[in-house]
Amino acid sequence: MSVLTPYTADRVEPVVVAEMTAEGIERDAASPENWYSADGRPYGYSLDRPDSETDPAELDLIERVAGKAMRCDIGLHIFVSNLEGRPVLGRLAQRVAERTEGWVLVEFRTPPSADLLGYLENAGRCIRVDDYVYLDAPAMAAWYAHPNFHVIK
Q: Which of 42, 46, 93, 137 could bridge 104 with an S-S bond, Cβ 3.0-4.6 Å?
């Protein structure tokens, strides 16, 4: 999952580390770039430029809605195709977005219904882009609590 934030990488990294630790994901002492849950699922994160994977026009739209320039793209990763481990990414993304004024990129299995988009927009701020959205922390919390919640890897 991706979280765009107006904070710098130096400022968000301690937040990401704290939230991963709070989720029970621990850094491998022998290989600090690797993180594992108690059940052995491999997780990780990356801190990139906001335009590293986001189209410039899309980034401009997000910045206009947010009222701030985005300075970092936080990638939250699970390194296996394991559906049970994906909700962790949703929780992490929501909490990181909450603490960093971030916007979470959410992709859907099928185009979202008008009802779902309305639900997300009523919960927080939702930026529609084609068949996916960017959600602020309150909208992401609503998506995580929704019965159709899923994470596309």
A: 93
**pLDDT per residue as tens digits for the range 17-33:** 999 999 999 999 888 88
Sheet with 126-129, side-by-side order of all strands: 26-28, 31-36, 42-48, 72-78, 2-5, 103-107, 132-135, 126-129
Can you name the residues that pair with 105 across neighbouring β-strands?
2, 134
This model's pTM is above 0.90 = yes
pLDDT at residue 93 is higher than 70: yes
Q: Where would I find the beta strands (DSSP E) of 49-143?
A: 72-78, 103-107, 126-129, 132-135
- DSSP element (H, E) containing 115: helix 114-123
